[in-house]
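hey m, so remember when u said the tokens were messed up on ur end? i reran from scratch. heres the input so u can diff it against urs
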Amino acid sequence: MSTFKALMVTKDEAGLQHVGWSQLTEADLMDGDVTVRVTHSTINYKDGLVLSGKSAVPRKFPMVAGIDFAGIVETSGHSNFKSGDAVLLNGFGLSETHFGGFAEKARVRGDWLIKLPNGIDAHHAMAIGTAGYTAMLSVLALEKHGMKPSDGPALVTGAAGGVGSVAIALLAKLGWHVIASTGRTEEADYLKSLGATEIIERKELSEPGRPLGKERWAAGVDSVGSHTLVNALGMTKAHGAIACCGLAQGMDLPGNVAPFILRGVALLGIDSVMCPMPHRIEAWNRLARDLDLKLLDSMTKTIRLDNVVEEAATILKGGIRGRVVVTVA
């Protein structure tokens, strides 16, 4: 039986995690009714956590890392898919409880897969990846809450990262005045090229602040959490909303109820991992319609599977701008 390469996270008897390459066979893959030849993957902040070897994200060992993949169906026992179909997968426990996308093959449940939308190939699907798909879920949540560009500006935190970059591009195309918050002010020209109108320094939001501040934006997409999210809420206009989708600064929420009970601000939680399939399909169809692929290309770099570990360490240091596509085939 032929073997294929996979990036594994293992745990030793002392409880220490180790990250390294392994050769697997299809017999090593986990249960599922669809086997996919993986052609592309990507690197998200969560992948960086997994490959740090110090994360609580993997809950089974050994574990193939990678929370996304795109590829071609080889065999299928699922009625929605057949050999040759181009598919993608985000989340659903990949690299947590089920082998992920940093491997040349994957076996998963067909109920988790999505056929590539018209107009998006495997490379662009992974340029979007969980980060871009999460940005779209955030925009959809704001829209479903009734938010619109005429209500005022939209804040995007962690603006130079994957979620932030795609969120800026989407919001700007939809007509929003986008305020981008970043700790990398040298990326101002890049952020403006994506559609940001204003750039503010991260430190304006990242330190402990007052319960309520001046009303500066009507909506926001926050991938940072902690004090940044608290301050974003405290400066949101009355009856505005912030979509919360990340924890780059921390998982804590060291705030108070003032924005909620004095201004009617809403905090919208975004779950990209176990998001129901209808919402996933809606998000990907909107990405195919609303995201400029040339703009996506401008924020994307491409690496080989062999370089994933090094690149994952860089993303934890805030050293990656935009998105990264991993060529697997």
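this time it looks ok to me. The first strand starts at residue 4 and ends at 11. if urs says something different then somethings off w ur setup not the seq
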